[in-house]
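Appendix C: a fully annotated inverse folding record. The material below is reproduced so that readers can follow the format used throughout the book. The structure is listed first as tokens, followed by the designed sequence.
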């Protein structure tokens, strides 16, 4: 489905121009992007086996990857269907020697690039081999941030699953229902409808004049009360690609200020959409979005960045944020997710995923953004 060899060929061009002999990637979005080597589902805390630090692949210029996979890891994460040589490191093997011998097969190289989140112990063992180690995160991100048509198909499917979940859960937003019950229903529906997993920890929270909670408390066992906005923040995963989706439902009849705030959030997202054109920067989109909320007098309650890149990882560069001066290009995918989180007053979040195209940006979501109340 994905052209992994073509991706590695494009990476090789960047490595050669930077005089990097080969690259090492641990299990990550980078490794899955370049080889198809699957990641495990998310685990709270560290997931480790003996010789874990060797896990990953050396990707040389002009030849197939060489994977190092500890026996304990491969027992439940077999590297099936990937091109290249697989070296399994047994429990009783000398992993330092296996790693050093594998590294010597490539020259030895003078300069090795490592992708983000490579273990520090892996880097230290490379340094012991008297090679220069450099960070290749920028080089790989330059490839990953521009999505191929096949990637967009997977992301659209992930977006659709999130919308289907929202439709299933909306009728269950009732007085007396707990946020925990709603979050559990979201997670159940994600898996039922075909998501590999949730793309991050599902958040469902309520805010309003009779509610002491804030957006920092994402799940609660307290029952819902009338007069609150119930915010949803969740996503699906299809073929390794993430969605990130947000909507807000008001429980009861909203007062005029809530309606005003909701309209401001929708207008802010629309301003961000209009600014998300090729040639503008990610910071331009943040400024356009934030400006609407600030002009309406609610600036202090838009407390986070406007959005972030998304793909094989939930949060990727570019970030739709004040500090990110990256110029938007056709094929970039990102969220625009303005909010007003004003404790004991208003809680509203609307979030969708967009792809930058020649004439502007297109939403991968088609779910209505109109105010739902009752």
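Designed amino acids, in order:
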């Amino acid at each position: 489905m994905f052209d992994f060899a073509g991706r590695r060929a494009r990476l090789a061009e960047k490595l050669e121009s930077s005089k990097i002999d080969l690259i090492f990637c641990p299990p990550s979005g980078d490794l899955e992007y370049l080889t198809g080597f699957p990641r495990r589902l998310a685990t709270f805390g560290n997931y480790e086996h003996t010789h874990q630090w060797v896990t990953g692949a050396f990707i040389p210029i002009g030849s197939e990857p060489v994977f190092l996979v500890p026996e304990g890891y491969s027992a439940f994460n077999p590297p099936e269907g990937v091109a290249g040589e697989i070296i399994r490191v047994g429990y009783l093997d000398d992993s330092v020697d296996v790693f050093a011998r594998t590294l010597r097969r490539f020259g030895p190289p003078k300069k090795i690039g490592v992708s983000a989140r490579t273990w520090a112990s892996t880097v230290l063992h490379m340094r012991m081999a008297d090679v220069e180690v450099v960070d290749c995160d920028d080089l790989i991100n330059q490839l990953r941030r521009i999505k191929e048509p096949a990637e967009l198909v997977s992301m659209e499917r992930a977006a659709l699953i999130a919308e289907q979940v929202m439709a299933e859960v909306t009728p269950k937003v009732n007085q007396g229902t707990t946020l925990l019950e709603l979050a559990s229903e979201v997670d159940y529906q994600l898996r039922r409808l075909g998501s590999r997993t949730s793309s991050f920890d599902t958040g469902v929270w309520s805010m309003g004049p009779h509610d002491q909670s804030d957006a920092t408390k994402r799940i609660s066992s307290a029952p819902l009360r009338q007069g609150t906005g119930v915010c949803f923040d969740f996503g699906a995963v299809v073929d390794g690609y993430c969605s990130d989706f947000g909507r807000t439902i008001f429980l009861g009849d909203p007062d005029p200020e809530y309606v005003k705030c909701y309209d401001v959030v929708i207008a802010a997202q629309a301003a961000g959409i209009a600014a998300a054109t090729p040639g503008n920067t990610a910071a331009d989109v943040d400024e356009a979005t934030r400006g609407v909320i600030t002009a309406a007098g609610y600036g202090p309650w838009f407390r986070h960045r406007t959005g972030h890149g998304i793909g094989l990882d939930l949060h990727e560069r570019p970030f739709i944020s004040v500090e990110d001066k990256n110029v938007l290009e056709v094929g970039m995918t990102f969220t625009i997710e303005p909010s007003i989180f004003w404790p004991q007053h208003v809680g509203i979040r609307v979030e969708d995923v967009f792809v930058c195209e020649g004439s502007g940006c297109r939403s991968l979501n088609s779910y209505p953004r109109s105010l739902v109340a009752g």
